[in-house]
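Long-time lurker, first post. I've been practising inverse folding by hand and with some scripts of my own, and I keep getting stuck on stretches where the structure tokens seem ambiguous. Below is the full token string for one chain I'm working on. Before anyone asks, I'm not after the true native sequence, just a reasonable design that respects the backbone. If someone could post their per-position residues I'd love to compare against what I wrote down in my notebook.
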């Protein structure tokens, strides 16, 4: 998926105004200063967006992306968190940068929808006590804890301001969430006057909360089906969102945070869209704060790229399962419980050459290995959950987004509902 490259300083501005309704966050009720009568517990991941190199040339296309640069720009980015807590911190990522990233200011607040925030909840973000800070090339930095209490499944807005010419390097392409690109320093604006919009996340790869409760953290690791391709923009309909809401609705002693480490187009064995799965697993799963569990659903692109992009992209089912096994072993070494998810039906996939009989045979082999794997803590059978009873190699029509590979909102809901919550308590 190629990101859009809209000008950051067009001659006209569009002002996005949104009337707040009862559904909008009331800062006094949902967001507020944390109480520090007792020390907060260790941080837990509540939102993630796995980083990719914006300027990487996908080996399957050979087409270079147009470089993008932000200058004197505020980026207001909205995230749906999972676990609530007493304080928050934000992870700034410059993993794929070639020179130091300078951020001249950042704020976090409850989102009031669209480009608006709840002003009473607005807080400045500092790093090492400084409101302006740098992130060295190839690294990530956590902010200082921010005194902002969050409920579970909150919508928050993180605004970043860069004054000088700042090339885009590290980003998450498929945000499925509108990012508002505004001229000038609008960090404190109740509603930014957006010059343009994007649907990617820039330079932010995680949000943690500090909670006094013991909590589990479940990382959903995968490709576009985990990332929510073709789900409704700004609606948080991805299967990990569905799963997070299910956990939050259950009154139990152990809350569960669900974070999304999917990258659209990702593969187990090769760098194409984002770093390969076996290469990013340590950072994007095992590196999440408080991680206790993971669901791994990855491999369909390893199979589909063979017919779509040629023999150089072909791998065997055994190579895919060996890659999955290596990730399982890493997780087990760290004491993280692993659930493997079967690869979902894709007969008739709309991308030329992606589906063929050989790719389907490989999918069946991979799924048989997953279902028979006694070395993991559980299996999530998304294949069975989504298949058409009349033709099990196809997605159920009511849950097909139209490309015969990715579910629609109802399909993602079916995926989230197919997970046995008791296995993650």
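-- Answer (accepted) --
I ran through it position by position. Result:
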């Amino acid at each position: 998926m190629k990101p859009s490259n809209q000008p950051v300083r067009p001659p006209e501005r569009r002002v996005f105004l949104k009337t707040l309704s009862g559904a909008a966050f009331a800062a006094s009720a949902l967001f507020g200063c944390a109480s520090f009568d007792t020390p907060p517990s260790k941080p837990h991941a509540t939102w993630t967006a796995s980083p990719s190199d914006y300027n990487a040339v996908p080996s399957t296309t050979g087409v270079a992306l147009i470089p993008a640069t932000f200058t004197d720009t505020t980026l207001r980015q909205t995230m749906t968190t999972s676990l609530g807590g007493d304080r928050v911190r934000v992870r700034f990522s410059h993993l794929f940068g070639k020179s130091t990233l300078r951020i001249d200011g950042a704020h976090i607040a409850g989102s009031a929808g669209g480009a608006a925030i709840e002003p009473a909840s607005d807080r400045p973000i500092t790093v090492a006590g400084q409101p302006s800070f740098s992130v060295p090339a190839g690294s990530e930095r956590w902010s200082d804890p921010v005194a902002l209490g969050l409920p579970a499944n909150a919508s928050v807005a993180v605004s970043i301001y860069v004054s000088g010419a700042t090339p885009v390097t590290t980003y998450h392409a498929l945000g499925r969430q509108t990012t508002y690109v505004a001229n000038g320093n609008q960090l404190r604006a109740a509603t930014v006057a957006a010059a343009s919009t994007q649907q990617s996340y820039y330079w932010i790869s995680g949000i943690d909360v500090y909670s006094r409760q013991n909590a589990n953290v479940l990382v959903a690791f995968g490709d576009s089906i985990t990332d929510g391709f073709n789900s409704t923009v700004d609606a948080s309909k991805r299967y990990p969102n569905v799963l997070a809401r299910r956990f939050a609705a259950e009154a139990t002693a152990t809350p569960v945070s669900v974070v999304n480490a999917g990258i659209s187009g990702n593969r187990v064995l090769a760098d194409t869209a984002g770093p390969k799965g076996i290469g990013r697993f340590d950072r994007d799963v095992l590196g999440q704060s408080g991680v206790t569990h993971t669901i791994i659903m990855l491999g369909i692109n390893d199979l589909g790229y063979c017919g779509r992009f040629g023999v150089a992209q072909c791998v065997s089912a055994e190579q895919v399962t060996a890659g999955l096994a290596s990730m399982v072993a890493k997780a087990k070494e760290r004491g993280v419980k692993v659930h493997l998810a079967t690869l979902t039906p894709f007969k008739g996939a709309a991308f030329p050459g992606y589906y063929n009989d050989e790719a389907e045979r490989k999918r069946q082999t991979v799924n048989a290995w997953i279902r028979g794997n006694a070395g993991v803590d559980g299996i999530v059978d998304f294949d069975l959950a989504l298949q058409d009873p009349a033709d099990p190699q196809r997605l159920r029509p009511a849950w097909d987004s139209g490309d015969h590979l990715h579910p629609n909102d109802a399909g993602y809901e079916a995926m989230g509902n197919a997970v046995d919550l008791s296995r993650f308590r």
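A couple of notes from the structure itself: The two ends are 36 Å apart (CA to CA). The first strand starts at residue 43 and ends at 48. Happy to go over any region you disagree with.
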